[in-house]
Design brief:
Helix content: 25-40%
CATH superfamily: Ribonuclease H-like superfamily/Ribonuclease H
CATH topology: Nucleotidyltransferase, domain 5
Shape: globular
Strand order of the largest sheet: 3-2-1-4-5
Structural class: alpha/beta
Strand content: 25-35%
Largest sheet: 5 strands, mixed
Radius of gyration: 16 Å
Number of strands: 5
CATH class: Alpha Beta
Number of domains: 1
């Protein structure tokens, strides 16, 4: 678990999600960094969507932090995630978790989890173009894809 405070060095969080089919087996990957300390996380779900994996990566990263308010920089290649948490969520909450077309917001459980965890921190959200050589984004993509292979192989394993 990383420890930080608003006075210390920011925690950098890099995230990515992936799916084989949409929906299909999915994985997520995270690189957490504070100074020289770096941690990698990943996980999978047997049947999910790419968007859920993008959001899950952030939820899991924020869970790894202690309860101390800290500065965080989150870098993602998902416009859905970045725009959702920085812009759309305000309207969704005001509209009772409905979109502008009055449909229920998809992945509400994950949006609420991110929103709740983010309240105690100072978070800067950054977007990078995926698959363009950003080292941490590429690593997160690799972690997410490796997780998909784990879920795919676990479904074919015989016990």
């Amino acid at each position: 678990m990383m420890q930080s405070s608003v006075e210390s060095e920011p925690v950098e969080i890099f995230t990515d999600g992936a799916c084989s089919g949409n929906p299909g087996p999915g994985g997520w990957g995270v690189v957490l960094r504070q100074g020289e300390l770096e941690t990698e996380l990943s996980g999978f779900e047997a049947r999910t969507t790419n968007n859920r994996m993008e959001l899950t990566a952030v939820v899991e990263a924020l869970r790894k932090l202690d309860d101390t308010a800290c500065k965080i920089v989150i870098t993602t290649d998902s416009r859905y995630l970045k725009d959702g948490i920085t812009t759309w969520i305000k309207t969704w909450k005001r509209n009772g978790w409905r979109t502008s077309s009055r449909e229920p917001v998809k992945n509400r459980d994950l949006w609420e989890a991110i929103d709740s965890a983010a309240r105690q921190h100072q978070i800067e959200w950054r977007w990078v173009r995926g698959h363009r050589g950003h080292p941490e984004n590429e690593r997160c993509d690799e972690l997410a894809r490796d997780a998909i292979r784990r879920v795919s192989s676990s479904r074919t394993a015989r016990y």
